[in-house]
UniProtKB/TrEMBL annotation:
Record has Transport as a keyword: yes
Protein source organism: Desulfolutivibrio sulfodismutans
Assigned keywords, A-Z: Amino-acid transport, Cell membrane, Membrane, Transmembrane, Transmembrane helix, Transport
Any single Pfam family the record assigns to this protein: BPD_transp_2
Stated name of the protein: Branched-chain amino acid ABC transporter permease
Membrane spanning residue stretches: 12-31, 65-86, 98-116, 136-161, 190-209, 242-260
Length: 290
């Protein structure tokens, strides 16, 4: 019985934890490049997922086309979010920049209501993978799809940041924007690209979570905050560590739901966030992506 519980916790925890991990990486990318906490990250997932659902109904997208469409639209959404927040307030105070992301979150939630309504929308499984059993562990189709999308995203993003000129430019801006500018790097371009990459990650997260929990007009803020908690757990310092922070959060929530009560998971998550913010060392505030 105990083993069955543990197997179910692993299956459910990895499915949600992969989504939290992708959201967390988006937070870390934007924070490290611009020192901005983007509270509209959840709406990137929401609008990206709803648009993908409409496209899949109209065009019956095959898996490769669905991935390409999600990545492209996420990239565009990320650029649009940058243009309406940090792009128009680059010299504003951090508080004003933060409030712009909150305002963008509310505006995009309104857009979701206008175009898709308030009823939950089920995103079909656009990357169908067969379930897998490994000994006592059983991984459902949703879990395997979420893991495949998230692990591939982590690997590709890590390679991009470490092996390409543009990726190294983003890292240089995150370390010292003044020195990067003296080397001919445009910090504004790197900020915009960080938002765009966060949009791509959010679109991948939408493909992973849509078939699990459906897409609702009010889900963006909650998922965004979970990503923020996961990024804080991971320390913002490296893509793999931030992703593992999301996986850990997903496993903790799955254990709480199965062993205690689903009503406790939100409370425990935010208590954990308060504790991390209070106890986190100051070095974490200046962490850089690796």
């Amino acid at each position: 019985m105990v083993i069955q519980y543990l197997a179910q916790i692993v299956n459910s925890g990895l499915a949600l934890g992969s989504v939290y991990g992708l959201m967390a990486i988006g937070f870390a990318l934007i924070f490290n490049s611009s020192r901005l906490i983007n509270f509209a990250q959840g709406e990137l997932l929401l609008i990206g997922g709803l648009t993908l659902q409409s496209l899949s109904q109209a065009l019956h997208l095959p898996p490769v086309a669905a991935l390409a469409a999600a990545a492209l639209f996420g990239f565009i959404l990320g650029h649009a979010l940058y243009a309406s927040t940090l792009g128009v307030s680059i010299n504003a105070s951090p508080l004003r920049q933060l409030m712009l992301t909150v305002a963008a979150s509310l505006c995009w939630q309104g857009v979701a209501i206008v175009f898709w309504g308030k009823n939950p929308v089920m995103l079909p499984q656009l990357l169908p993978l067969p379930p897998l059993r490994l000994g006592l562990l059983f991984f459902s189709q949703d879990t395997l799809t979420a893991l495949a999308l998230s692990v591939a995203s982590v690997v590709l993003l890590s390679l991009f940041l470490s092996r390409t000129t543009t990726g190294r430019a983003i890292r240089a801006v995150s370390m010292n924007p003044v020195a990067a500018r003296l080397q001919g790097i445009r910090p504004g371009h790197c900020h915009a690209l960080s938002f765009a990459l966060a949009g791509v990650l959010a679109a991948m997260a939408a493909m992973a979570v849509g078939p699990q929990t459906m897409l609702r007009y009010d889900m963006g803020l909650g998922l965004g905050l979970k990503g923020f908690v996961a990024a804080t757990i991971g320390g913002y310092a490296s893509v793999p560590r931030v992703f593992l922070g999301g996986v850990l959060l997903g496993l903790v929530e799955a254990a709480l739901v199965l062993l205690l009560s689903g009503e406790l998971k939100e409370t425990v998550t935010y208590i954990l966030l308060i504790g991390l913010l209070v106890l986190a060392p100051k070095e974490q505030e200046t962490a850089r992506p690796a």
